[in-house]
């Protein structure tokens, strides 16, 4: 019996039109373009300005882009997973709404929340459904409207985050392509360093929480940076070691776009000498949280060739982190 693996067969992406540049941020907080660029690699980020629209809008647009590229029948989709840290609401499923809006009437849907690692963890989940043989088409979307939880008077966070979404379709593969291995980890003791403190069951919304700005994302930069640099790099190195891969075996590093210095540290740990192998779009979008990995796939899809070795690496609040080794399944 032929072993079934789970391969990505289509991708899509979407970012809003409005561009928030470093120069514009200089007028909002005490910072400057050189400081931001040197420390993060970010030059601009996209913002969904319409306050009546939420993360679902971004996710729908990314899904529609994938559907157009692949020309698929949405009624064949079995499952839709939306990885997000900013769901439309905390109760009603954002994924369920997205699924209805794109017309995937035969699919069930749910949200997956693992901060910036949501899409990475979602890859494992989508692949497991496919490999079980139970479902044939799983649509995984990573989407976040980070501007909805960013305090634009806080220079430690407002320079980092942007809005955006990406999507990937997983289908069965019998050629040995697709997801090969995963190394996923979490450490809940780190949640104090990167979080949105109010709005959940521990600290429900109140006049006091709003006054204290506790519904905005908080980050203790030094602690997060230190943990991210070591663990994201370690995870990528671990996945290479487990699969007997050396640097020349890797065609592409697909890293979470949180900070260029973290990306560089991961690439160095993997021994990647060619910058062309390291996929970076952080300069255009900033950190779109759950959207970074699929947006990279969407932006660079035309460069991938069937059989290429891709290593994904991510790190997020919680803490959550890990790496996935995947063989690309098609030529664009």
Walk me through what this model shows.
With 332 residues, this protein is an alpha/beta fold. The protein folds into two domains: 5-176, Peroxisomal Thiolase, Chain A, domain 1, CATH 3.40.47; 179-327, Peroxisomal Thiolase, Chain A, domain 1 (3-Layer(aba) Sandwich), CATH 3.40.47.10. It has helices at 22-26, 33-40, 55-70, 94-101, 118-131, 155-158, 207-211, 221-242, 260-270, 282-285, 292-300, and strands spanning 5-14, 18-21, 44-47, 79-83, 108-112, 138-145, 163-173, 178-186, 194-195, 218-219, 252-255, 309-316, 320-327. The strands form four sheets. It has a five-stranded mixed β-sheet with strand order 1-7-6-4-5, with helices on both faces.
Number of helices: 11
Alpha carbon gyration radius? 19 Å
Distance between the termini: 29 Å
Largest sheet: 5 strands, mixed
- What's the CATH H-level homologous superfamily of the largest domain? Thiolase/Chalcone synthase
The pLDDT mean sits at 96
- What is CATH's topology name of the largest domain? Peroxisomal Thiolase, Chain A, domain 1
Low-pLDDT windows of residues: none
Strand content: 15-25%
Task: Tell me the layout of helices and strands.
Elements: E1 5-14, E2 18-21, H1 22-26, H2 33-40, E3 44-47, H3 55-70, E4 79-83, H4 94-101, E5 108-112, H5 118-131, E6 138-145, H6 155-158, E7 163-173, E8 178-186, E9 194-195, H7 207-211, E10 218-219, H8 221-242, E11 252-255, H9 260-270, H10 282-285, H11 292-300, E12 309-316, E13 320-327
Parallel strand pairs: 4-5, 4-6, 11-12
Antiparallel strand pairs: 1-7, 2-3, 6-7, 8-13, 9-10, 12-13
Helix pairs in contact: 3-4, 8-9
């Amino acid at each position: 019996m032929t072993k079934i693996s789970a391969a990505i067969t289509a991708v899509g992406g979407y970012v809003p039109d409005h561009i928030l540049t470093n120069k514009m941020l200089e007028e909002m907080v005490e910072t400057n373009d050189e400081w931001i660029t040197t420390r993060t690699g970010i030059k601009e980020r996209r913002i969904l300005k319409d306050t009546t629209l939420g993360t679902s809008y971004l996710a729908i647009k990314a899904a529609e882009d994938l559907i157009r590229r692949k020309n698929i029948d949405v009624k064949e989709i079995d499952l839709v997973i939306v990885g997000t840290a900013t769901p439309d609401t905390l109760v009603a499923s954002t994924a369920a709404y997205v699924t209805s809006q794109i017309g995937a009437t035969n699919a069930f849907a749910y949200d997956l929340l693992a901060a910036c690692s949501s899409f990475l963890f979602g890859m494992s989940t989508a692949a497991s459904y496919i490999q079980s043989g139970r479902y044939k088409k799983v649509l995984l979307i990573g989407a976040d409207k980070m501007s909805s939880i960013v305090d634009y008077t806080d220079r430690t966070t407002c320079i980092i985050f942007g809005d955006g979404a990406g999507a990937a379709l997983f289908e069965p593969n019998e050629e040995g392509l697709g997801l090969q291995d995963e190394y996923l980890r979490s450490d809940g003791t780190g949640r104090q360093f990167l979080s949105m403190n109010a709005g959940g069951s521990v600290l429900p919304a109140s006049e006091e929480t709003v006054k204290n700005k506790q519904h905005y994302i908080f980050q203790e930069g030094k602690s997060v940076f230190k943990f991210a640099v070591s663990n994201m790099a370690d995870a990528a190195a671990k996945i290479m070691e487990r699969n007997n891969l050396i640097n020349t075996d890797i065609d592409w590093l697909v890293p979470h776009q949180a900070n260029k210095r973290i990306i560089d540290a991961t690439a160095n740990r993997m021994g990647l000498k060619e910058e062309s192998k390291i996929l970076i779009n952080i300069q255009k979008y900033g950190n779109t949280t759950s959207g970074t990995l699929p947006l990279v796939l969407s932006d660079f899809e035309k460069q991938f060739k069937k059989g290429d070795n891709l290593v994904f690496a991510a790190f997020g609040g919680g803490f959550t982190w890990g790496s996935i080794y995947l063989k690309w399944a098609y030529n664009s």
